[in-house]
C-alpha cells in the first residue's frame, strides 16, 4: 500500500524519513493522533470482555512516573552528570 497509510510498525527503517515526511504535524493532526492512540489503548486494554489489570496498572505506573518527575525536578540526568 501507500507509505502514508502504513502503521509505524510496518515501516522499514530506511523508509522512516519518508514516512515521517507524510505525517501531519499540525496541531489538529497531533490532536487526532493522540485521540487515535487513546482510543486504541482503551480498545486493547480497557474495553475488553475478559480484561485483566494490565491496562489500568500501566496507566497508574505512567502517572506515578510522571508525577515523580514533576515533584522532583532537581533529580535529572544533567544534575547527575554534573555531580560526577
From TrEMBL:
One of its GO terms (molecular function) is proton-transporting ATP synthase activity, rotational mechanism. GO terms for cellular component: mitochondrial membrane; proton-transporting ATP synthase complex. The keyword Transport applies. It is found in: Mitochondrion membrane. InterPro entries: F1F0-ATPsyn_F_prd. Signal peptide: none annotated. It comes from the Eukaryota. It holds the Pfam family WRW. Keywords: ATP synthesis, CF(0), Hydrogen ion transport, Ion transport, Membrane, Mitochondrion, Transport. GO terms for biological process: proton motive force-driven mitochondrial ATP synthesis. Belongs to the ATPase F chain family. This is ATPK synthase. It comes from Chauna torquata (Southern screamer).
